User: Fold this.
Amino acid sequence: MSAGSSRVGSLVAAVKARWNAGIPPHSFALLRIALGLMGLLSLVALTPVEMFWPLDGLTPLSADGTGPRAWLLAHGFGTVAGWALFLALTVVFAALTVGWWSDAAVLGAFVGLIAQDHWNNIPLSSAHRVLIVTIFCLLWAETGRVWSLDAFLSGRAHDPDARVPPWPLWLMRCQVAVIYGSTGLHKLAYPVWRDGSGVHWALNLNVFHRLPWAVPPEAATLVALATWATLAFELLFPVLVMVRRLRPWVLIAGVGLHLGLWATLELGPFSWIMLATYIAFLDPDTTSRLFRRDGKSGLGAAARPSTT
Assistant:
């Protein structure tokens, strides 16, 4: 047998062993809590309800159209239906956060977000799409085994030996990698990102910039470096984050990037949702020990290269 075949066989055996062993369910529980909070945050950003949710609010529809929305508007239910959707999503994301009927809450959040996209997508941003695809990954995971109201009520609140299939975590990692990679390729197609002026234009667009003043000319070099660094990070993230030794540094760089985006640009909850997805890259075994009282593990350990 060749050396190459031997290495492939060893890799397949290692994957099978990890698959059969499973991982602690705490990573999925932490993702459920974080994404539930992000869903609630996104709803808060779409208030007042009277502006963003009724069919005769921000972008009035014609009552002469066809489809469910036109029927609701023609019969005077546009405002009631908007309030109903807003309140339903609030209940679903609250249930997701506390882990009450966890599996149903994940499904309800996924369906509700898609319904929201069809209801009125004008005030929605890329954060909404990221929330949809990441919650989709949780559809296949057991998110209520620990750190949930479900576990507390069923008497399984403390189950140190619980193990669940790891592949939904791998799916979320791949999804986050695709988000970064596709965003980087999209930017690469535009000359302003290749010539180093992309961040300059983003910071000076009224629709995005958070700070009420223009970037000074003296900062041109720094802005160009920030542009190329952002582009390089997004293009290389899918590759570098898969290398265990490099993963902590890639995640730290990502935290810095998203905190910078939050501080300078009005992007809604996008930065916080992306940071919430980083939980998927933490070592699952260490994540399960984050809140142990014996103090043997902590947040620093969770950022170590994952063996999964």
